[in-house]
Specification:
The protein is of the alpha/beta class. Helix content is 41%, strand content 16%. The protein folds into 3 domains: 120 residues, NADH-ubiquinone oxidoreductase 51kDa subunit (Rossmann fold), CATH 3.40.50; 74 residues, Ubiquitin-like (UB roll) (Roll); 84 residues, NADH-ubiquinone oxidoreductase 51kDa subunit, iron-sulphur binding domain (de novo design (two linked rop proteins)), CATH 1.20.1440.230. The radius of gyration is 20 Å and the shape is globular. The protein binds iron/sulfur cluster (SF4).
């Protein structure tokens, strides 16, 4: 567990800011006792006096309230679930990313899945937890599967499992890691293993455990345009990449069919987003756009 000097507060992040993610809500509905056990174990280990559960929707507090957990309802925005934004908001500030890390304010923030894992480790021990998954990444993963699949929903699999059985029967490109993730082509997705490093090597992203298959009738570039416009609107407007870069990239994407200069401009502007923001929000957009230009290159050629 991350070291938090003088920890006073443990925050369970159940904000589900990513539109395609359902797993925190699923956990808080189906296994709130595990999340509560993990939060209590973390608070005891860190010496925290307070446990806060942050949710974006009513009805997710479940059995956590009666167990000494303060439940707060946060603003339903993408960036509200970012750790520093959430820590600042719980302390009475604006729900926007901040330079100061939560750990420097005596706050430990993690998502509901991590606390559920902690709850299970407290109950069954570390060896039991390591009996699933890989040596480098032990345990299991919760994934939200959506889009053009036969069985959408939240599933739990050991780390290192193949993706193919989870999207069997589908044939489209796959968005991995959600709106700040990366596209991977149909063929590559079907030989992908669900382990963070293995995914990174193939250009995919585990992120918040999102796998969404593009329907055969939907253009990948059109879907990327929709997502980038939405992401541009979510930026907190504090840094240049969010204020100017994301709207410019969204405009270039929209202009791809009309303006021959839009593609080189888009590549250059996307590149400029990388590592320039106060948080990783612009990096996610850059990764999404770059992967889209690669995976949907056939759409670009058809439009040329
Ligand atoms: S990059 Fe965007 S979201 Fe991140 S801190 Fe700067 S303005 Fe906020």
């Amino acid at each position: 567990m991350a070291s938090v000097r003088g920890c006073s507060t443990v925050i369970v992040n159940g904000m589900e800011g990513e539109p395609l993610s359902e797993k925190d809500g699923w956990l808080l509905t189906h296994a709130p006792h595990l999340v509560a056990d993990g939060a209590i174990a973390a608070a005891e280990l860190l010496g925290a006096r307070e446990i806060v559960l942050a949710v974006a929707r009513d009805g997710l507090a479940g059995v956590l309230g009666p167990r000494g957990v303060r439940v707060v309802r946060g603003p339903d925005r993408y960036l509200s679930g970012q750790e520093s934004a959430l820590a600042g908001w719980v302390r009475g500030g604006r729900p926007v990313p901040a330079a100061r890390r939560p750990a420097d304010r005596g706050i430990f923030v993690s998502n509901a899945e991590t606390f559920a894992h902690l709850g299970l480790i407290a109950r069954h021990g570390a060896d039991w937890f390591r009996s699933a998954g890989t040596a480098a990444a032990p345990g299991t993963l919760l994934l939200t599967i959506s889009g053009a699949v036969a069985r959408p929903g939240v599933v739990e699999v050991p780390v290192g499992s193949p993706l193919a059985p989870l999207i069997a029967g589908s044939s489209g490109a796959v968005l991995t890691g959600g709106y700040g993730g990366a596209w991977i082509g149909a063929q590559g997705a079907r030989s992908l293993w669900l382990e963070p490093e293995a995914m990174r090597e193939r250009g995919a992203v585990l992120g918040p455990g999102i796998v969404s298959v593009l329907p055969a009738t939907v253009s990948g570039l059109s879907d990327t345009r929709r997502i980038v416009r939405w992401m541009a609107a979510q930026g907190a407007g504090q840094c240049g990449p969010c204020r100017f870069g994301l709207p410019a990239v969204a405009a270039d994407l929209d202009a791809l069919d009309l303006d021959p200069g839009a593609l080189p401009r888009l590549r250059a502007r996307a590149e400029l987003l990388r590592g320039r923001g106060g948080c990783a929000h612009p990096d996610g957009v850059e990764r999404l756009v770059s992967s889209a230009l690669d995976v949907f290159a056939h759409e670009l050629r058809a439009a040329a």
